[in-house]
Amino acid sequence: MSDKIHPVDEMLPVPKLLALGLQHVLVMYAGAVAVPLIIGRALKLPPEDVAFLISADLFACGLATLVQCIGFPGVGIRLPVMMGVTFASVGPMLSMATSPEVGLLGIYGSVIAAGIFGIIVAPFVSRLLPLFPPVVTGTIILIIGISLMRVGINWAGGGLPTINKIVDGVQGAFPNPNYGQLQGLGIALFVLLFILGLIKWGAGFVANVSVLLGIVAGTMLATVLGVMHFEKVAAAPWGALVFPFKFGIPQFHTVPIITMCIVMIVVMIESLGMFLALGEMTGKPVDREALSRGLRADGVGTLLGGIFNTFPYTSFSQNVGLVSVTGVRSRWVTITGGVIMLLLGLLPKMAALVEAVPQVVLGGAGLVMFGMVAATGARILANVDFKTNRFNLFIVAISVGFGLIPLAAPGFFHNLPRELQPLLDSGILLCAIVAVLLNAFFNGLGSGKTAEADAASAASSAQHV
After folding, report:
1. Do residues 31 and 39 lie in contact, with contact meaning Cβ atoms separated by under 8 Å?
2. Burial class, 415, CB count within 10 angstroms (exposed 0-12 / middle 13-18 / buried 19+)
3. Nearest to residue 291, comparing CAs of 437, 84, 124?
């Protein structure tokens, strides 16, 4: 028996941990602060309360990441994972925000209940692992990467093509005047080429932090061109405390709780795909017990979110792409990232500095990272038997088609019941459900019973690549 430390558990030197951890934070920061901004504005909270929501979110991001990566008895998958607020919860929470009888305290009550629900059902969700043979896993990871590409492309474009704003007293969606500007596209292209150059000609640690160096170089260019602004940095305070239940005691309403528990199931099934992807990338098998710990940590993170005035948490898929790009598999890197997020939550001025990095800078990095997630799915599918089992072709083709519906046609399901929207708005979840059902239909439920063995075999072979 070998006493060699697995790369996932390897403790790197502190300077490397700081640089690599900061790299993870920069990649996820824009997504991490987006949800509190959206919900805070929907609730028409004053600016100081919105700022507190952002600080609380960053603080809870750090806590949830530490729980997931350090691990405690029965909790935490102990893989390089960064935790952030799930976008699957945005739609339901916006509906709650506009309901006078629910409001912010009702949202927090539903989040706390959903966290407890997630902790309880985690072992049952983990039992779904045998339903995920390589043809299903590879397809889901492929659609995760494809879904994320939309995020990276919009970052490169300078945000979303349309923005919600109030004109003449009427709120509506209007074209984003900054979207697709040549200057922004040039900055994104510069970052992309810079990262690719470091990947090809850089060596060792330089190649590992290629995304961070690319973002730093892009930030410097954006500053010279006048695209990066520091007004919010100057106005932000140096320190702020994050304490539980700032807005009052949470309220518990039946329908919001049921809705958020459905969101929690969506989150956990998506996380299952993320964990399988990370197991493939890091060469560490993800068995049923590990899945239970990871999914339970999602529930704990969501519970902490409700307590600390924020929202449901999940594993951030963009950071999975970063693991693939850098090849750095140590969970101590994301633990460091979690500590940095904690500090950013307590130091608003530093958080504002990170937030000031233009989205076009992140866009150049996003195209590399998210494409690598899709490539990982393709690599898994390369080992699937398509030659003698033509049914596998149909499983991949139809599942990918369903997974692309929310991306290609966002209003496709708008006539279906509103309660189903959290399920139907997730291309990853649609792909997972269809892939599992088609695999069971074509290959039988028995085909997935060796999923854990397949995962262990794939992980073993990945260690020798």
Report:
1. no
2. exposed
3. 124
Specify the pLDDT at position 172.
Answer: 62
Spans of all domains in the chain: 11-463
Q: pLDDT (tens digit, 9 = 90+) per residue, 310-319?
A: 888 888 877 8
The closest of 50, 94, 123 to 295, measured between CA atoms, is: 123
Q: Which of 332, 333, 296 is nearest to 314 (CA)?
A: 296
Contact between 45 and 320 (Cβ < 8 Å): no
Give the H/E segment covering residue 227.
none
Give the pLDDT score at 457.
Answer: 44
Angstrom distance (rounded) from CA 171 to CA 169: 7
What are the pLDDT digits (tens) for 419-465?
676 667 778 778 888 998 999 999 887 655 554 444 444 434 333 33
Low-confidence ranges of the chain (pLDDT < 70): 1-3, 30-31, 41, 91, 164-174, 418-419, 421-423, 446-465
* Cβ-based neighbours of 430, under 8 Å, separated by 6 or more: 402, 403, 405, 406, 423, 424
Nearest to 105 by CA among 312, 313, 309: 309
* Residue 269 DSSP one-character state: H
Question: From the centroid of its chain, how far is CA 412?
Answer: 24
Residue type, 382: A
For the chain, the distance separating the N- and C-terminal CA atoms, rounded to the nearest angstrom, is 22
Q: Is 126 helix (H, G, I), strand (E, B) or coil?
A: helix
- The Cα–Cα gap between 73 and 364 comes to 39
Q: What is the pLDDT of residues 127-172, one digit of tens each?
A: 877 887 889 888 887 887 888 788 788 888 887 777 766 555 555 6
Q: Is the distance from CB of 377 to CB of 139 less than 8 angstroms? A: yes
Helical residues (DSSP H) of 86-209, grouped into ranges? 90-97, 103-126, 134-157, 182-201, 205-208
